Automatic annotation (TrEMBL):
Its EC number is 2.4.1.17. This is glucuronosyltransferase. Gene3D superfamilies: Glycogen Phosphorylase B. It catalyses: glucuronate acceptor + UDP-alpha-D-glucuronate = acceptor beta-D-glucuronoside + UDP + H(+). It comes from the Eukaryota. Belongs to the UDP-glycosyltransferase family. It comes from Steinernema carpocapsae (Entomopathogenic nematode).
Length: 657
């Protein structure tokens, strides 16, 4: 059988009326019905296909290596005349790669959000012999290969990256996730849909070393404990280093990943191992993400200059409205992290790759600048502190937020039995309420007892704890359907550790926050919660029954009128709902855009190429200042000479007299 092909322009938009512009005809045997990438062919019966062939001319969809670049599009009526094939074979012979949502024209009607299968080998379409089909003509698209690097920094970090992986898989892309084990207590992969998940465990260090950090040992409730101690950072970077070294020296794993020929690498920005890893795997385009708020590393990557006089460090509780002493401390902290921690660790990680691959392995800072296409920040721009950003920085807070379900079982009963409402208490997955000092627990219980018309749900790891008994309006539970509870109309407030996900979920459903930050970025998050007046900041060094009661009353009010915190939280909820694009749309569209066009050097800020003295305009202001100084000095010298001359004249006149 031969099929007449009508060649069309590359990537035409799906026409609603008429036919795409014709640019030539050709005739091929059906067994050779394979066309070059980005060229569209219309066969007899309006079959439209785009796919690649391998070196021996077989359809790319039959070759896993090219799987991610094969796309099938079906036009209107198809009539292929070949020998009869059993109808039951049709579904089996279609090589399904995935599903995608698209706008389509179907049977002459405008049908939106139509599911379709793509990537099918055109040669397999011969199963539709002697049959006619009305099929949809849709906008052309491509499937790409993504490599996601997800260290186990915490459950929320892994889950955040997993949401990105699942979103890309749902869009029909091929995704591989590599999970280096840093925290051995994080067992989740985050993703349920990635095509390949690799959990890598280093062998050089004792895997329990991570457990010795302060924030996992219950010491975080100490009022004098640092937000992020130097010792904790030292332990974390030690684990980063040796896991990275073990990973790079696993030749079999590296070769298997290199053979995948990924289009884009995606990583959360905490260390520098992934910079060298992406280069080793031949990945030339990268996307950086952050499960925590925006901070200075992201600015430097895209060429922005950090401004510590208006941008509080992520490891402080400062607002952007800092006092003189706060600005001084903020600047000192920035330089401490920037020069004594980051630069040291960049050099350490570079040494691993140069030892393995040679001294000419590229520098990491230059690699990051050249390969980073965009940065996704898991935050809301209307909630966080305002700051200068680049075109390459995309705020996408709320990604993959679970759709709330109606409460059932005991949680429904708790909600229904509350006279004025429900207050949720949860300190996240790392901080344990059971680790609270005994006196702090008693303070909470005493404050809760002063609000008998409210029911309190407390996420508590040991609900059978004797100290919790005989409190009629307190319900302790190991697990809470947090999104479902926050979405419920009876829920009036959320006491949280201010992890970024919890803050986002709370404002997403318009619930005011009782902010009790413990460590890391949590005090920073609590600071912008307080700044936006969507919550009340409780200092962990002042946890008494009275201070906790004051916080509850400030947020709950009299139960009849909405407090300023509730009003602002609801306004924030409405602002989020009215955003021009959802987080999922932003991530998917920008990721596919980057996969197609690369690292987007057109969007780089030139300051990254400038010397430090040029960036701060010292080469401009320096000469001007020097000129002014010289001019002032000259004027003063001239005045001095004039004064001396005048004085000498007076002296000579006096002598004559």
């Amino acid at each position: 059988m031969t099929v007449d092909l009508l060649k069309l322009k590359s990537n035409p938009r799906a026409p609603r009326h008429g036919k795409p512009e014709e640019i030539g005809w050709s005739t091929l045997p059906s067994d050779e019905l394979t066309v070059a990438p980005d060229v569209v062919a219309s066969a007899t019966g309006h079959l439209v296909v785009v796919h690649e062939a391998d070196s021996v001319g077989r359809p790319a969809t039959m070759n896993r290596k090219f799987l991610h670049r094969s796309v099938l599009f079906l036009g209107s009526e198809i009539l292929l005349r070949t020998k009869k094939v059993k109808v039951g074979q049709r579904r089996q012979t279609l090589f399904r790669l995935g599903e995608r949502r698209a706008d389509a024209l179907f049977c002459g009607r405008d049908c939106r959000n139509t599911d379709f299968m793509f990537g099918n080998c055109v040669g397999e379409m011969r199963v539709f012999q002697n049959s006619s089909f009305l099929l949809s003509l849709i906008t052309l698209c491509s499937s790409y290969k993504f490599f996601i690097y997800t260290p186990t920094l915490g459950h929320s970090h892994v889950n955040f990256m997993g949401k990105i992986a699942d979103l890309l898989v749902d869009a029909g892309h091929y995704v591989v996730v590599l999970i280096p084990i840093h925290d051995p207590d994080v067992h989740s992969n985050g993703t349920t849909k990635a095509h390949r998940v690799i959990r890598f465990e280093g062998h050089t260090l004792d895997k329990t070393l991570w457990r010795s950090v302060q924030f996992k040992g219950g010491k975080q409730f100490d009022p004098n404990a640092e937000i992020m101690s130097k010792n904790d950072l030292k332990i974390m970077y030690t684990v980063y280093h040796y896991v990275c070294k073990d990973l790079i020296n696993d030749d079999a794993l590296i070769e298997s990943l290199r053979a995948e020929k990924f289009d884009v690498g995606i990583t959360e920005k905490h260390d520098y191992c992934e910079v060298g890893l992406f280069e080793t795997l031949g990945i030339k385009t990268t996307i950086i993400t952050s499960a925590v708020p925006f901070y200075y590393k992201m600015q430097e990557i895209v060429g922005l200059q950090h401004s510590p006089f208006i941008e509080p460090s992520i490891f402080t509780s400062f607002s952007d409205e800092m006092t003189y002493m706060e600005r001084l401390r903020n600047i000192m902290r920035f330089h401490m992290y920037r020069y004594f921690i980051d630069d040291k660790n960049i050099a350490a990680r570079q040494s691993i790759f140069r030892e393995k691959f040679g001294a000419d392995f590229p520098g990491f800072k230059d690699l990051e600048y050249r390969t980073t296409a965009i940065i996704f920040v898991n935050s809301l721009e209307m909630l966080e502190f305002a700051r200068p950003i680049s075109h390459k920085i995309i705020y996408m807070g709320g990604l993959g937020l679970a759709k709330p379900k109606a409460l059932t079982g005991k949680f429904l009963e708790i909600s229904q039995s509350a006279k004025k409402g429900v207050v949720l208490l949860s300190l996240g997955s790392i901080v344990k309420s059971t680790d609270m000092p005994h006196q702090t627990k008693l303070a909470f219980l005493e404050a809760i007892a002063r609000f008998p018309e409210y029911n309190f749900i407390w996420k508590y790891d040991n609900p059978e704890d004797e100290i919790l008994k005989n409190h009629s309006n307190l319900y302790a539970t190991k697990w809470v359907p947090q999104v479902d509870v926050l979405a419920n109309s009876k829920t009036k407030a959320f006491l949280t550790h201010c992890g970024l996900n919890s803050v986002t979920e709370s404002v997403f459903f318009g619930k005011p926050i009782l902010a009790l930050p413990i460590f890391a970025d949590q005090p920073h998050n609590a600071a912008f919660v307080q700044k936006r007046k969507v919550g009340y900041y409780i200092k962990k060094g002042n946890l008494t029954a009275e201070s906790i009661e004051d916080a509850f009353r400030a947020v709950l009010g009299d139960g009849k009128t909405k407090t300023i915190y509730t009003q602002n939280a609801e306004r924030m909820r409405d602002m989020i709902k009215e955003r021009p694009f959802t987080s999922e749309q932003l991530v998917l569209r920008w990721t596919e855009y980057v996969a197609k066009f690369g690292a987007l050097p057109e969007m780089n800020i030139y300051t990254r190429e400038m010397q430090w003295y040029q960036t701060y305009m010292l080469d401009i202001y320096g000469p001007i200042l020097l000129t002014i100084i010289v001019l002032i000095a000259s004027i003063l010298a001239t005045i001095r000479k004039i004064v001396r001359v005048v004085l000498s004249l007076f002296e000579s006149k006096a002598k004559k007299d």
